[in-house]
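Hey L., structure's done. Input below.
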Amino acid sequence: MVWVFSCAFAVALLLVAEWRGWRLLACFAKPAASASFVAAALSAGATDSPYGRWLLAGLILAALGDVLLLARQGTPFRLGIYAFLGGHLAYASAFLRAGSTLPCALVALAAAAPAGYGALKWLEPHLPAGMQAPVRAYIAVITIMLVTAAAAAPADWRITAGATAFYCSDLSVARDRFVRPGLVNRLWGLPLYYTGQLLLALTAGHA
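Output:
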């Protein structure tokens, strides 16, 4: 539980930094929060099973993406997107090992596919030319991740809840970067994102 409190404290600092515009504090608090969910997974036994190891790989890639996205634009931002792409693929691989059920996957696909298409159509008019292909790929991969998480719902509800929180938090990132930048996006998106990552991290001991 110490890493949960550590993450919560770092997220609180990050929100203060975003509110006050304290860039240096944000550059400390965000990596600290992300390192906390990686540590939480290790404490939960992430190295003890294939599921845990794939999940840990996803968490590490997400933490790397968090650091890269501090740049907000340019090459580091694009690299951050690719880090998250890899992270989502690692998550999907983990969730498939958690115990999948076809009915849950089909229900999730029926909901997630239209949602992903709607998100793409919402974003497309606002995307710079160089970002269109990466964003399309990202939406496709995160949709796959969500469907595999839903398929694992009977194994552990936290998998689906964490993946859904992660998915929804990405809408705040997209809105902030491409549609309407503003503090409000980060005020709800960051807590939701870190809640999702912690929920996933705490399932790392799932065999």
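The helical segments are 2-20, 23-43, 50-68, 74-96, 102-123, 132-151, 157-179, 183-201. The longest helix spans residues 74-96.

-- N.
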